[in-house]
Amino acid sequence: MKSVIIVLAxxxxxxxxxxxxxxxxxxxxxxDGSIVNGWIDYREWERNPKKIKFNEMKxxxxxxxxxxxxxxxxxxxxxxxxxxxxxxxxxxxxxxxLTTTENNIDITDTVFLREEGxxxx
Length: 121
What we know:
The chain is mainly beta. It has one helix at residues 2-18, and strands spanning 23-30, 35-41, 51-55, 63-66, 70-75, 79-89, 106-115. The longest helix is centred in the first third of the chain and has 17 residues, at 2-18. The chain has a seven-stranded antiparallel β-sheet, with no helix packed on it. The chain has one domain. Helices cover 14% and strands 42% of the residues.
C-alpha cells in the first residue's frame, strides 16, 4: 500500500512540474508594428512554437498569441523568434515507411523561426 501511495505522489509531482509556468522577461512585436514589453512563458522549445503565452505584468492573466497575431517575439537574453512562411516536405523519413513514388508532399505553413542575433534590428 505504501508503494502505491509513493508512486501516486511521484506522478502528481511530475505532472505538476511539467505544467508549471516559466515567465521570463521579453517583448512581442504585433502585426501592426507595435512593441510590447512584458513576460513570456518560456518553454525552451525543442520545436518552433505555434503559440506563446504573454503577460504585460508578471502576475496578470496570460494572453495567448499565435503566428496570426505577431511578427516576432524575444525572450530577453535567450532567444528571438520571427514569423515566417515555410514549405515543409511531408514525405516519410523512417526507413520502413519510405516509398518508391516520387511525389512531393509539400505543405505551406506559417511558423515562428528561431533566429540568431538581436530583436528588431
